[in-house]
Design goal:
Layout lengths: L1 H16 L13 H59 L2 H10 L15
Length: 116
């Protein structure tokens, strides 16, 4: 009887010592879930590419706009310089000096006033 009890205790200890194996839980996706997942990944990829493409396009357009603004400013400066030059060249004194240089004389009786 004592031998049976000892044998039962040994068996209980062995049972307690052996770790229980965890069963792996296999997760299976249904066809609908797979389709939704693929659609979501495709949409995320498409949106990412579209956003990057739009940002790239906006960067180039902004760069072109800045270059055009710089060109416009340079042209406006040239126009202003030319306007000042025209004003300087069209003074009465200069025209009179140029006319005398070319041998023309001023006839006060032949002057006609033109108004704008």
């Amino acid at each position: 009887m004592a031998a049976v009890r000892i044998q039962q205790k040994v068996q209980q200890q062995q049972v307690q010592r052996t770790p229980k194996k965890k069963q792996k839980r296999v997760v299976r996706f249904t066809l609908a879930e797979k389709i939704v997942l693929v659609a979501f990944v495709a949409f995320a990829l498409y949106s990412s590419v579209t956003i990057v493409s739009n940002q790239f396009t906006m960067y180039h357009v902004n760069k072109e706009v800045q270059q055009l603004q710089a060109t416009i400013q340079e042209q406006e400066k040239r126009n202003l310089d030319l306007y000042v030059q025209v004003q300087e060249l069209s003074t009465y004194e200069r025209i009179l000096a140029k006319a005398k240089e070319l041998g023309l004389t001023l006839n006060e009786n032949n002057i006609k006033v033109v108004q704008d």
